Each structure stands twice: as structure tokens, then as C-alpha cells.
Amino acid sequence: MMNKRDISKELREKMDQFNVDVPEISLKQSLSQRMVNWLSEPVKSPADFLFRQWTPLKIALFPIAAFVCSIPFAFI
Amino acid sequence: MNSSKLEELFNSYHRQIYQFTYRYTQDETLSAEITQDTFIKFHNYKESFDPAKSHIRTFLFRIAYQLTMTKLKRRNKFKKLLPFLYERHNVSSISLDDKISIRTALMELPQSHRSVIILFYYHALSHNEISDILQIPIGTVKSRLYHSLKKLKHLLEVEDDE
């Protein structure tokens, strides 16, 4: 059966570079802390996505499309 | 099991569980949450643990692995729903000329292979124990280990001394 020593020294040295520092973790779950973590998670700005995906023509047509889509609401 | 015994167990194993999940996900917050959840799940399902069948460490690793898979699947679903909120992991950004680190190399491995190499190398677990944790045959453990070492050597540009 293979063991750690069967791995080449060079590869072992590279793998040993991945050290992990363990933060303070408590046994008790805190829902509020999890919510804070979730809300503070870095995310991309949706505006970047729109600007990358949308061509000038699409941007120009957006108000017209929004107007057309909102017409049915006028009859409610 | 009373709370002091659970706390004792937590103090003995939480570092190993965190290190495993962190090396697997490379996400601090997620790894800390999985570590907490592992012990809470163990406490809730302690009746299903049979010391005659497996070691407590193996049992905890199995719970942690299952939780990691569930949370990653959930996260991927969320990414599919709101893709514009997530940075896309750009695989092509790694040029062949760049020397990549072990962290990047591990993330390049398929998930099934990554878990095997982490448990084998960083936690010194036997093939039997890995097979028990991942619920796969020993032959699959050996084959995944062989292929992940081969891929790591290639990615990290390590000379093949076979």
C-alpha cells in the first residue's frame, strides 16, 4: 500500500507549502453571525455584468421595451 | 453524550476538520461553518456511530465531507441563478508558462480526486479510512490517488522519478 514516503521529495516539498492557519471557531452556531458573513461576502457588481453584456443598441432599446412591457399595467 | 464531552471532542478534532475543508474549498467562512456543523450533526446523529465499525475521526471526516458536498452543491445552484454576482473562476488565466502554487494545483483537480489526495497526504489516512469516509471502493481510492499525484506532478512541473 502506498504511503507518503512513496511520493517524490520535490512534490512533497511543494505540497508542504500549503499550510492552514486555523481561526478561532466556537462550537456554538450563531445564526446572526452567519447572516452577517453571508451579507458581507464580496460579490461582483451586477452593473458590470449589464455593461459587459449589453451593447449600446440594447441600452438604447431598453426604455422602449420597458414602456411596452408596462402598458398592460395601465389597464389593471 | 453531554456537552462537556462534545466540547472535548471539538477541541481534539476541530483543527483537522477545518484544515480538511479549507484545503478542499479554500474558503475560510465556509470551512468554519462546516466545522461547526460537523460537530452539531455528530451530536444529533451520535446513535448512528458505532465505535466497533469506524474510528471517531473517520466518522467526523465523513460528516464533514458530506456537509461540504451539500454546501458546495447549494452554492453552485445559487451561482447558476445569480451568475452576475459571482466572479467566474477563470481556468484559462493559468498560462502554461506560469509556475502555479500547490493551492491552485489542488483546485485544478476534479473534486473527487482532490478529497482523496488531501485525506491521504495532509491527514495521513489509510486507503481503508479514505474509502470509508468517501464511501467508495478501495480500488477507486488507489486509482484516484494515482491520477491526482500524476496531475499534481504535471501542474507543479515536478520531475517524474518513476
TrEMBL record, chain A:
Superkingdom, taxonomy of origin: Bacteria
The protein's name: Uncharacterized protein
Organism of this sequence: Gracilibacillus ureilyticus
TrEMBL record, chain B:
GO MF term set: DNA binding; sigma factor activity
GO BP term (any one): DNA-templated transcription initiation
Domain (RNA polymerase sigma-70 region): residue spans on this chain: 9-76
RNA polymerase sigma factor 70 region 4 type domain boundaries: 101-152
Keyword terms: Sigma factor, Transcription, Transcription regulation
Name assigned to this protein: RNA polymerase sigma-70 factor, ECF subfamily
Keyword Transcription: yes
Database matches in InterPro entries: RNA_pol_sigma-70-like, RNA_pol_sigma-70_dom, RNA_pol_sigma70_r2, RNA_pol_sigma70_r4_t2, RNA_pol_sigma_r2, RNA_pol_sigma_r3/r4-like, WH-like_DNA-bd_sf
Keyword Nucleus recorded: no
Taxonomy, superkingdom: Bacteria
Family from the record: Belongs to the sigma-70 factor family. ECF subfamily.
